[in-house]
Each structure stands twice: as C-alpha cells, then as structure tokens.
C-alpha cells in the first residue's frame, strides 16, 4: 500500500456469496467478470489512492441489465458501485466495502436528438465527445467539458463542469431529466424535456451530484446550444498571478459574456509547452475564448484585451482558425497529464476549491505564497471565470512524507476557501477524499439532512457505500 484511502473510508468488506456470482453469471454470461485485472481497473480512479477492488464487474447494456444487477445484489446485501469512464479524482470508485461494479460504458446509444427543442437524450455511457460527434451536422453542441472524455452518467453523478461553465453552466443547469435505477430496483424517470417545471420535488437536481450513492443513472436528457456563428481564442501572459486573476474578475464583473477563461501558472505552462510542443511564455497566462456574432466576438475581445493591458498583460496572441484554436485548447485539456510529467512516476493530489469571484485574487495569491514554501511541485490551473482553481500537488506515491505534505497543503487551501465563503469542491465532488470538508462546509446538521435522504432511498446502504459522508452519524 502506498497511498491508502482516508481513515473514514477504511471499512469492513461485506461477504460476497457464491450464489450471487452464480446468479450474475446466469443473467450476464461473459458480461460478468471476476478477473483480477478487470476488478483492479474498476477499483480505482484518477486519484492517488490505492485501488480497492470490487468482487465482480458487470458490463451492463441496458436499463433492464442494470435493474437485474441491482436486484440480485440487493437480494444478497451486496453493494453496487456505478462505473462510467473511471476519470473521477477523489476516490469515488474504490470498492471500500467490496461489491459489484456496474459498468455502464457499453450503454452508448444516442437515444434521440431533438434539434427543435435543443435537447438530446443519451444512454449513461455516452461520452461528451461521442455526443458532440453525433451533433456535428446539426449545428448544435453540448458544452460541458471536463478534461477527461467522461461519460454523461458520470458527469451527472459528479455534477461536473469544465472550461465552458462560465458561459453555459454546469451539469446542474444542463441536465433536464434522468432515468435511474434506485437501490430497491425501481426504475424512475425524473424531469421532462420541457425547459422548466414546478412539479414536486426536483429529483433530477437531487441525483445530479449524488456520486452513485442514490442509484444508477441509465439515461440522461441534456440541453444543447447552437454552435456560435463566430469563435475566437487568445492567450495573454501576465507578470503575476494577481494581475491575471484581477483581469478575470473585472471581465466577469463587467458582464462580458466570455465563453471560456482559464488560468495556467508558469510551472503548468512549462509542462504544457513540453507536452504539446508549444512555445508559450513561461509566465502566469490566461486562455480566452469568445463566442457570438462576428461583431460581438470582436467587441468582447477588445474589452478583455484592454482590461488585460491595464494589468500589464502582454503578447495577446489570437487563434481564429479552428485548427489553431483546437491546438491551444487541446493543450489546456491535456494539462493534467502534462503536469504529471513534471515529476516522472508521480501521482497528483488535486484541490478543487471555488470561491466567490470577488475573493478569487486573494485566494489564489495567498495559496501561491503558501505553496512557495513547499518542497512539492504544485502547478496551478483553473476555471477562474467561475472562481474555481486546481492545485496539482505532485507526490511520489512511495513517500508518506510527500503525501502528508500534500494533505497539509490541501487542508490549508480548503480552509482558506471556506473562510472566504467558497466551497471545498467546485466540480470534482466529495468521493472519499473530502468527506471531512463536507462537514466543515455544511455543518453537522446539513450533512445529517443529506444522510436522512440517503437512509430514505437506500436504507441498506447498497449504493456506492462509504462515499460523500458516513452512513451513520
Ligand atoms: C485529466 C482530467 C481532467 C478533469 N477535468 C475535470 C473538469 O474540468 N471538470 C470536472 O468536473 N471534472 C474533471 N475531471 C474529473 C472527472 O472527469 C469528472 O468527475 C467526470 O464527471 C467523471 O465521469 P466518469 O464517467 O469518468 O465517471 P466515473 O469516474 O466512472 O464515476 C464518477 C462517480 O460517478 C458515479 N457514476 C458514474 N456513472 C454513474 C451512473 N451511470 N449512475 C450513477 N452514478 C454514476 C460513480 O459511482 C462515481 O462515484 C477531470 C479528470 C481528469 C482525469
């Protein structure tokens, strides 16, 4: 063991009866696996935690498959861990009590694209890139873009966002409805394709962000957007992080409808240059993207360029051709893996705080000062238009002292964000790693209210147990 999961998540494994395996094999044939390699792949995510293997993996192809797997597991009191694309970062997928990983990546049908209503319904295993490929000839697109090519079910389950959230919102704003298999095997459809509804409790919003702890999502209905008539992108370097971030704050406060604005610090720029063969200046940098009509894109860009100049931004470089833009944004999307190459063999402990935009400069600058005193390489990137930024603390997984240092820094970053009225996680979710911070953020009574919902919908704690909060107070 190099990097065991946090203490709260070290739990006794539940028995996995032979009768359950026999029943799963009868139902799924070669779509159930107990092979060590398959279980190892499903018992980990992109967090630095050591894997904790499920007892078996079922590859589901339909809502009915998921219902069957959940029914059989419930009959034997065995946990179910929904699995999308495995790209989560907080230990979400570790089978801390054992159980069956239900992999929905084979549920990859586009159910419908309703161009006139600007909606699409997809099976939960469809990835964001697959959906956008299917939309290519419709003039529409789906904007939510976590760095990984995550599944729509996983994105709904983690309430994901990405570089476009500053303009288009997160999964919270963009999921209209879900089909979900609950712990007692009932199949429930939430929401409609209408753009709004006041009909009862909002089960869609409850399930979005539930991290697999309330049910397995099998279908997702999302909003789509017209592809903008004009798009332009730019990069601009700044003498300091504070200058870069203040440019962003003023851009947002002025109401410029910017589509993307990403911060990348000097160390992360070095990593990106090496990884993507670019030659960007190794200084704190903002990546911008503007969407709209030709005239509005020009106007937005001029406004932002003049704000950047007031903060000593230099070398404002434009990328208007689609291939230049893709090169720039692919480089930004690959930043996580580029940063890992700064320290061969390392894993990243990532922070994910989000603060009110007015406190962003203070939070980033204090964090930068804090990190300067640390022996760990800690590049910073962020979706700063939302007040959200990530520190990737690069640790040698064989060095407990490095892990302890990363966790010390992590606690300080989160403490600072909470003091400033922010959250411990803007987009990655709680998983295992941030369970203590959830209590700091919402208070014991707030977490108790969440626990009451979990008890009502999953009284035997079958769905992804040991995540978000402990089942007993
Ligand atoms: C390089 C990189 C960059 C990233 N950038 C971002 C970013 O910018 N923004 C962001 O938000 N995230 C980001 N992430 C994190 C990750 O991509 C998201 O959390 C994503 O939403 C996870 O989707 P997935 O399909 O991989 O889910 P998984 O990792 O498979 O699962 C994540 C959680 O959702 C549950 N789950 C999965 N599928 C279902 C389902 N069908 N029903 C119910 N529960 C389910 C799982 O049980 C688990 O708890 C990044 C990750 C990496 C590796």
TrEMBL record:
Coiled coil: none annotated. PROSITE patterns: FAD_PCMH (PS51387). Residues 50-227 form the FAD-binding PCMH-type domain. Keywords: FAD, Flavoprotein, Oxidoreductase, Transit peptide. One of its GO terms (biological process) is lactate catabolic process. Its cofactor is FAD. Its EC number is 1.1.2.4. GO terms for molecular function: D-lactate dehydrogenase (cytochrome) activity; D-lactate dehydrogenase (NAD+) activity; FAD binding. It is an enzyme of class 1 (oxidoreductase). Pfam families: FAD-oxidase_C (PF02913), FAD_binding_4 (PF01565). Belongs to the FAD-binding oxidoreductase/transferase type 4 family. This is D-lactate dehydrogenase (cytochrome).
């Amino acid at each position: 063991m190099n990097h065991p999961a946090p203490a709260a998540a070290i739990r006794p494994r539940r028995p996995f009866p032979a009768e359950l395996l026999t029943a799963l094999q009868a139902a799924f044939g070669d779509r159930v696996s107990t092979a060590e390699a398959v279980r190892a792949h499903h018992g980990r995510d992109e967090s630095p935690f050591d894997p904790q293997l499920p007892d078996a993996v079922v590859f589901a192809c339909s809502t009915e498959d998921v219902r069957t797997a959940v029914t059989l597991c419930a009959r034997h009191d065995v946990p179910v861990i929904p699995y999308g694309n495995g790209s989560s970062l907080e230990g979400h997928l570790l089978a801390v009590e054992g159980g069956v990983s239900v992999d929905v990546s084979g549920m990859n049908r586009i159910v419908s694209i309703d161009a006139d209503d600007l909606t699409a319904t997809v099976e939960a295993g469809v990835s964001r890139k697959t959906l956008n490929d299917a939309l290519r000839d419709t003039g529409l697109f789906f904007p939510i873009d976590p760095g990984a090519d995550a599944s729509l079910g996983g994105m709904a389950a983690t309430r994901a966002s990405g570089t476009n959230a500053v303009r288009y919102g997160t999964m919270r704003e963009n999921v209209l409805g879900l089909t979900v298999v609950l712990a007692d095997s009932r199949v429930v459809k939430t929401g409609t394709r209408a753009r709004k509804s006041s009909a009862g409790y909002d089960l869609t919003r409850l399930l979005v962000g539930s991290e697999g702890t309330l049910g397995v999502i099998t279908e997702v209905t999302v909003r789509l957007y017209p592809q903008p008539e004009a798009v332009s992108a730019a990069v601009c370097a700044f003498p300091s992080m504070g200058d870069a971030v203040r440019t962003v704050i003023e851009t947002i406060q002025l109401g410029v409808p910017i589509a993307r604005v990403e911060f990348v610090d000097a160390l992360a720029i070095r990593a990106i240059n090496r990884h993507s063969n670019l030659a960007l200046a190794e200084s704190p940098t903002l990546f911008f993207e503007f969407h709209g009509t030709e005239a509005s894109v020009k106007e937005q860009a001029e406004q932002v360029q003049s704000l950047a100049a007031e903060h000593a931004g230099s070398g404002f470089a434009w990328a208007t051709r689609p291939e230049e833009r893709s090169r720039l944004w692919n480089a930004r999307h690959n930043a996580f893996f580029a940063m890992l190459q700064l320290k061969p063999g390392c894993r990243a402990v990532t922070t994910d705080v989000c603060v009110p935009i007015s406190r962003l400069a203070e939070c980033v600058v204090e964090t930068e000062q804090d990190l300067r005193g640390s022996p760990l390489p800690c590049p910073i990137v962020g979706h700063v238009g939302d007040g959200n930024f990530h520190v990737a603390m690069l640790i040698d997984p064989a060095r407990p002292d490095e892990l302890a240092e990363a966790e010390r820094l992590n606690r300080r970053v989160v403490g600072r964000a909470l003091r400033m009225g922010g959250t411990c996680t803007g987009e990655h979710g709680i998983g295992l790693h941030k369970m203590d911070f959830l209590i700091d953020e919402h208070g014991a009574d707030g977490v108790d209210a969440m626990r009451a919902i979990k008890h009502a919908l999953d009284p035997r704690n079958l769905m992804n147990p040991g995540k978000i909060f402990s089942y007993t107070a």
